[in-house]
Amino acid sequence: MIAKPKEFYRGIFMLAAFSIVFASFMSPVFNGKNGLDFLDNFYNSISKSSSYYVPKLKKSAEKFSGNMIKVSLELGKQDAETALQMFNAIGVKPIKTADQISIEADMKLILDALLIDADLMVANDGAKLKEKYGIDEKRAMFTWWKVAGEIDKKLKKQDKFKEAIMFDSVKKKGIEQAYNYYGVKMEKAQDKIILMSLSLIFYVIYTIWYGYSILFIFEGIGLKIGH
């Protein structure tokens, strides 16, 4: 039984309109993508820009020029083979024994290689990494991620904490960011302020719209919400 027809049919109309907009939003009308995927990619692009620290990391790496490090890295058989190939490509000559490789090199030489490759991934230019190392670009970056983590761990055991922190920062803020956002176009928030504002306004209005449509339907059938 409908207790308040006016409220009930108002709610039904609002819910029907909500459903039409929702169906349109979930259709591939945004360059072949639905609205959810479009906005997800859009905000990923914005967050990629805000989490881009490679230029700052390159500047921080300058202070380690001439700082020689000597470490043995335990990477596992497959990663050790890949790392050996990659180190040779950047001019570091490691010694491999079983699943371990030992390196002795200028710390900045290694940091520069990691950050240059991270920048290529940020630019979505994986083809250059493939050409450089002869392996899949994501595989190469994953290997650098493991290498940076191992160097960080081994330097801490040598009480070289400043050096270890630098490799940890490159791993987390450089390599991880580049790997996770690979394939995502980087956009600056200030360049997309209008679209950001419209999407947030739409979200607020749409959420309230749905809430009121349910409220009117409940009121129409005589239900009351109280405490």
Q: Strand tally, please?
A: 3
| Radius of gyration over all CA atoms, rounded | 27 Å
User: What topology, given as strand order, has the largest sheet?
Assistant: 1-3-2
Mean pLDDT equals 90
Give the count of structural domains. Answer: 2
Shape from CA axes? elongated
List the uncertain runs.
Answer: none
Beta-strand content estimate: 5-15%
Q: Given the helix and strand composition, which structural class is it?
A: mainly alpha
Order of helical and strand elements: HHHEHEEHHHHH
Our count of helices gives 9
What is the first-to-last residue Cα distance? 24 Å
The description of the largest β-sheet is: 3 strands, antiparallel
> Helical content, roughly?
55-70%
Task: Draw up the topology in text.
Layout: H1 5-25, H2 35-50, H3 54-61, E1 68-74, H4 77-89, E2 95-97, E3 100-106, H5 107-122, H6 126-133, H7 137-157, H8 161-180, H9 193-220
Antiparallel strand pairs: 1-3, 2-3
Model description:
This protein has 227 residues and is mainly alpha-helical. It has two domains: 5-48 and 187-220, no CATH class; 54-180, no CATH class. It has nine helices and three strands. A three-stranded antiparallel β-sheet has the order 1-3-2. The longest helix has 28 residues, at 193-220. The radius of gyration is 27 Å and the shape is elongated.
Please sum up the structure shown.
By secondary structure, this protein is mostly helical. The protein is built from nine helices and three strands.
